[in-house]
């Protein structure tokens, strides 16, 4: 589901990068087709953002973010200028509606706009609107299910302005949670029987927010966000050792902290993270007809915090693993494998955005 921002100049597979702009930084991924339905990772890079440049998915400082995008593009070594961007799920209203099958494109657009006006709390001329025909309705094959996505035009325009200021050409705007699912679907397809009938819970633990998606047979059956993220651990480090926020963030990643850090600061944080995951799963059980989860996937920058995956597995008593979106991909000669291993879970959204090139 994406807002199409222009044609690919008639070239279906022109090189295209996925660019994920989050609260903590920007991440870039370029993939290519390696043949035999395999992908190759050509380039990846990340660049931290100053605090306050992006808040709750809103761009607060276009210049700072555009500068970070310019740096990440240069650092990555890519030559590609076409870009897919993501919108935070909280900025996008999505709604599934049922319409009669066999409508012309024009009638379909008219019906979608009419329906959308009921669900969207803004004037339609302030909104970027897109829709996707999902397919026939199960019990009513003459009707089709249509997914509508709408977001404020200004939010799209901010992201377009950033890409253009960095010398890039935005082609597609996707929803970040859909991009994450695209990347995860590829990994699930590598499991025995392609993961059929299994219920997977994806926890993307970001700086401020954890996004939860529960998937079954390629469909999202549950989705929500919880205000919890790695910012809490950074703040604890700032308070305990009197460091600046930036220094605390850097030392959190390298583990270069005083003795006693693990016991006094890290372990309590891991416990509260595992508690958040457990609560979210309980909430899923009480608010849906489902009563089991077969596997938990952790993604986002926080997923690689030492000990998190084990603490969550022990607390939930469920198989838990850290997502590596590049698993099973070929790697270009310039890709640094050790760095990739350490950072991969943070690239789930950027990887899914980059995969739009092959749609």
Automatic annotation (TrEMBL):
It comes from the Bacteria. CDD domains: ASKHA_NBD_PilM. InterPro entries: ATPase_NBD (IPR043129), FtsA/MreB (IPR050696), PilM (IPR005883), SHS2_FtsA (IPR003494). Residues 16-184 form the SHS2 domain. Transmembrane segments: none annotated. This is Pilus assembly protein PilM. It comes from Actimicrobium antarcticum. The lineage of its organism: Bacteria, Pseudomonadati, Pseudomonadota, Betaproteobacteria, Burkholderiales.
